[in-house]
Amino acid sequence: LGQVETALHFGHECLPLFRKLGSLRWEGLVKTQLGVLHQAQEQYEQAVALLREARQIFVEVGDRFEQAYTCYYLYKLYAAIGETALSLEAKQEAQRLNQTLQIPYLTAQLV
After folding, report:
1. Averaged pLDDT score across all residues of the chain
2. SS3 of residue 83 by DSSP
3. CA–CA distance from 107 to each of 26, 51, 70, 96 (Å)?
4. Based on the structure, what is the number of domains in the chain?
5. Crossing angle, helix 24-40 and helix 3-21, to 10 degrees?
6. Which CATH number characterizes residue 54's domain?
């Protein structure tokens, strides 16, 4: 197995453990990374589902930093699969969140 496949395997393996521990934030973090990995594998439906689930978790726990990054990842993913309206919506949400966060990387990427 390659690095991406190995990371996907372990990521999906650890998700139930974070659920069992009740750590929503960590569940969201793992789902975000799994979404990015599925995108790298061109498994776009899985990537979208995981990133949307992660974004919802970050909304629920009030983690605006991770929510902004997840919106950024959704913006890039939707653009890659030709979902222009959804891409723009995710980009605008990331920009809105970053207005108060002022994350330098996102500021540079969201121009």
Report:
1. 97
2. coil
3. 25, 20, 14, 11
4. 1
5. 160
6. 1.25.40.10
- Whole-angstrom Cα distance, residue 89 to residue 27? 24
Show the 3-state SS of the chain. Answer: CCHHHHHHHHHHHHHHHHHHHCCHHHHHHHHHHHHHHHHHCCCHHHHHHHHHHHHHHHHHHCCHHHHHHHHHHHHHHHHHCCCHHHHHHHHHHHHHHHHHHCCHHHHHHCC
State the Cα–Cα distance between residues 9 and 33, nearest whole angstrom: 12
pLDDT digit string, tens, across residues 29-38: 999 999 999 9
Residues (pLDDT < 70) of the chain are: none
Q: What is the pTM of this model?
A: 0.94
Give the closest residue to 73 by CA, choosing from 101, 104, 49.
Answer: 49
Its domain, for residue 51, covers: 3-109
d(CA 110, CA 14): 31
